[in-house]
User: What shape does this take?
Amino acid sequence: MKKTLLCFFSLLLSFPLVQAQQPQKPSSNDIYDALQKLNFLGTVLYVAAHPDDENTRLISYMSNHEKARTGYLALTRGDGGQNLIGPELRELLGVIRTQELLAARRIDGGEQLFTRANDFGYSKNPDETLKIWNKDAVLSDVVLAIRKFKPDVIINRFDHRTPGTTHGHHTSSAMLSFEAFDLANDKTAYPNQLDQTGLWQPKRLFFNTGWWMYGSQENFEKVDKSNMLSLDIGVYYPTKGLSNNEIASLASSQHLCQGFGRLSQRGAQEEYIEFLKGVPLQNNNDVFAGINTTWTRVNNGAAIGDILRKVETHFNFTNPSVHVPELLKAFKLIQKIDDAHWRNLKSQEIKNIITMCAGLYLEASAATNWATPGESVEVSLEVLNRSAQNIILESFKFNNSESEPKHLELSNNKRFSIEATLQIDKDQKPSSPYWLNEKGSLGMYKVDNTSYIGLPETPRAYQVDFNLIIDNVPVTISKDVVYRFSKPDKGELYRPFEIIPEASAKLTEQVIIFDTKKQQDIPVVVKSGRDNLEGFVTIDHPEGWSVFPEKQKVSIKNKGEEQTLVFTVIPPESEDEGIISPVVHVGEKHYSKALLEIDYEHIPFQTVLLPSDSKVVRLNIKKRGEKIAYIQGAGDVVPESLRQIGYNVRILAPEEITPETLELFDALVVGIRAYNTVDGLKFKQQLLFDFVNNGGNMVVQYNNSYRLNVDQLAPYEIHLSRNRVTDENAEVTFLDPDNPVLNYPNKISESDFEGWTQERGLYFPDTWGNEFTPVLSMNDIGESPKNGSLLVAKYGKGYYVYTGLSFFREFPAGVSGAYRLFANMLSLGKDDMKSNKELKQ
Ligand SMILES: [Zn+2]
Assistant: This one.
């Protein structure tokens, strides 16, 4: 049996808020629910683009009401978003969101699938999305998911017919699903998959529509719904004590890094799905109408169905172990099913039900949460039969070792504890997320091991097979090796057992700016994966840069301990940038990755290996003015970035804004969305304008026109729009090449707009008073020029600048052109020699 199947098996427990890694402790109700699902042979796949797109009401309804095997195919892992619960962004955020999806599926009873597509950020339309993704590769992954999961019914979250009305990733997910529906059964499409999967034709494709597609509830009432099914997703499940929509709310509340914690809902509620293609609907409001979802679907399945239906009908809630003999009969028949897909799936399900009915407790817990290749680890096996059934533990084996004979008769409720030794393979790969092992492109992860494509996470490296004989029938149950421990303030806890490298090293800053030729001390934190690590560390660096000393010795006594080494980095004279990365040399081996940990209560503990490198940037920025006041908005790192290039920056709270305080500064910068998020700012606006009038410069970064907390954003007329340029490489035209902001003190050229990240900018003004000079023009492909990204106006003796350019994204990425342009905005009018280059009044 393939081990990877194990992670496809999920079970809704009667108490859904168990800590993320706790083993199943099922009640009779859980067993009964699992039995009902065992007796249903239908499959549904829900398709969308991101973590949180999925309609958990419908996934839970299909899984718990229809009893169907239900999957959610999220094309991406959501790396591109914000994180409301911690500092992780990009790849690490994708790891958190992957785990939040798995946590949601543990609650709603679904399974989780992915493609290799990367959430690269906002995209206006599917044309752009499919260009940045490798369309063919993502389509191939959707086809693969369908061929492997074999859904009868596919439901798209988004409409494939309305590009441009929502995020391009959304429409793309629906378009790819629409195309893959037919390709999955086409032997000329991706034929290299066929050995692994075979062909598959889903029967029906739906779109999960709703009143919002029609503008209002009223409009929707008038719509002809003969092509739609309506499902009451508020049904109540007495065995769970929960309504379907309550389960759905609990599931979507797992998306905590997106702030999705929410109130639960109860009571009848209609959900609509619109038929798109496949076998025509029948007049009975049933997604599976005309599709055989009983045991007769498989050859010789009728006899299995006869046994299992009886067990379901006469289920003994007070003593479910009485059903073990009948379940074993069915288990033996299931082994003879010729269709490998159903045989594997249903074998796993029924084995799980047999262990649950017998109250069997099987666990393999390592003495440590992580180990390194070649190490041996003590593993404690707990084996317990809590029924009168005749069960023998014949032997056990680790997946990389020979089986060890035991022949233990497991009498009722007698606990056995077996101490075993797991020898970690010398060439065992670390247990980091597989999609981050190699560097991918902007739009795609690179996955070398093709058998991993689509899996939610890297399969665990080590399992124990418990070879049992239950009433004379051999049954093997596999369990991942875990780590069990307790904390005085938390109680019993579980973590995955992980393999880490013997050494790793990380740099604390992702971008290090050198504003002058002055050297900087850079700390390197080396972590040991084992006891008694001895070696040395060197730093790879670009030509023209120097690092001292050339190498430093590392000596760490205990596993898990860290040692910090400080290297001195000297930049070149002229502007330059490159990458530095530490390398730990241990014997013949060298290690250049950082070991990062993610620890939240709602998801399992994660260790992630990422390339350990920092961008070093030597800037030669000329500046006029030195003292900057910063008013924080929604939070950005712009103040730290300005400090890195030598400004003296002070954060001002709204109550600190007085004429006397403002007098201390040369310029004032307003953080992103400050007028959306800082209530008191509107009362200070006149003081800020007075500051400009008296000769100060004021730079306002992007705000959202929706919920703007100020009547007068600028001293002159300005109107914010939703215009944005999402292509970070969009061509930039200089509308006013002589404008000081492009010339002084730093000469800005086209090259300053190279290497930008994620986007050019957002929420640009679309109309403004004549006092403003628009300086730059840019647009996404196929759109009209947008001229409002940088507006400059003289006001009294100073300058007011409004800019929607995404400096808050470019600074942390070390984009030198962004720093130079910002320095020019702050320097406006600060040099009398240049004042003949006045802006137009
Ligand atoms: Zn989305």
About this structure: The chain has 18 helices and 42 strands. Residues 49-50, 53, 167, 170 surround zinc ion (CB under 6 Å).
